[in-house]
Amino acid sequence: MWRILLVAITINAQAATPDRNFSLDPKQQSALGVTLTTVQIAKSEPLQASATVTVPTGREVAVTAPYPGQMVRISAGIGDTVKAGAPLGQFVSPSAGDARRLQQEATIESRLAQSVLDREQALFEDGLIPAARVQAARAKVEAAQAVVRAREAEVNASGMQFESSVSRKRGETPSGVAAGYATGSLRAPMAGVITEVFTPVGQRVDAGAVLFRLVDVSQLQLDIQLAPEKAALLKVGDAVTLPQRQANAVVTGISQAVDSSQLARVRARIQSHGNLQLGELLSVQVHPGVRKAGAGWTVPSRSLTQWQGMPVLFVATSTGFSVKSVEVLSSNDDTSVVAGPLSADSKVALSGIASLRALLQSGR
Fold first, then answer.
1. For a 10 Å CB count at each end of the chain, is N or C smaller?
2. Position 295 pLDDT exceeds 80
């Protein structure tokens, strides 16, 4: 009987292609085992994902050793909140002493060059020497000043504050490590919380070794890992919730590539911190928004089938069915969310899909 029905309606299916209609009366539908179900407006189902609490770019700095040397005193420890410019510890380095010596020598040379220029200028004004000698003296002053600027830049770039010279200017008697010409105080480059102290007191380190890590925790973010197909459902502005931690966030960036574990990364700015802690790994719920106005529909996954290389639904019409191509936004074993030309009263085939496909196949 099924073959007879196929032959009887083959002519009606001749032109059936995606987004085209073909006729099938209720008796034929019943004979083919076709049943219908009404589509539902898609609700935003949260996506479960793992995330790490981090800080945005630019809110974390590392304080490094400016020269080879050692920490002889540590003034701030892990968990301490410090202000910009606050002392972190005392650092001793012979190289720092050499840098200060070279700076002072350059300053002296610059003063001497300026004195020579002043003398040569006076002699020139009295008509005793040619202008060439004044020009030569002026060139030496400019060269000496350039050396001074270079030496000052080197010392300033170290981030060390040398307190012994300040103490001497005030008439104080420096003592202990603060009196050393090669000893300086390392200062916090910004306000924040110290999250790591890498070097114990007395341990020698090379130039560039990380001594402290400082983080501004006033603004946190989530580094979320998702499967690429789930990340494709998100857009900037979608909500992220952490119900167990009384916190929430909003998506601010979505990676267009996957990492070595074949997962996509999503960045979210935390709006309410709750009781989150920097560095912890936890589970979050990401709520994808509506990608297209009025385009999200929930249908049974078994209603979907492939035709001519695209996912389609058999949508019921007054005379039969219309083959509608759709875009699958998300899918699991039971339900799928699709975007396509559907309406709230649309009914799609729930069973008998193979029979409807056979009709299309025979009508090609």
1. N
2. no
* Three-class SS of 307-328: ECCEEEEEEECCCEEEEEECEE
Q: Which of 2, 75, 34 is nearest to 315 (CA)?
A: 34
Question: 74 and 92 in contact (C-beta within 8 Å)?
Answer: no
Single out the residue of 301, 309, 297, 268 nearest to residue 285, CA to CA.
268
96-131: burial string, b at 16+ Cβ within 10 Å, e else: bbebbeebeebbebbeebbebbeebeeebeeeebee
At position 41, the amino acid (one-letter code) is I
The answer to whether residue 170 scores a pLDDT higher than 70 is: no
Please say if the pLDDT value at position 167 is more than 50. Answer: no
- Put residue 328 in one of left, alpha, beta given phi > 0 → left and psi -120 to 50 → alpha: beta
Contact (CB, 8 A) for 68 and 204 = yes
- Which pLDDT belongs to residue 292? 44
* Residue found by looking up tokens 């002072």 in the block: 104
In this structure, the dihedral spanned by the alpha carbons of residues 124, 130, 134 and 140, taken in order and rounded to 10 degrees, is: -150
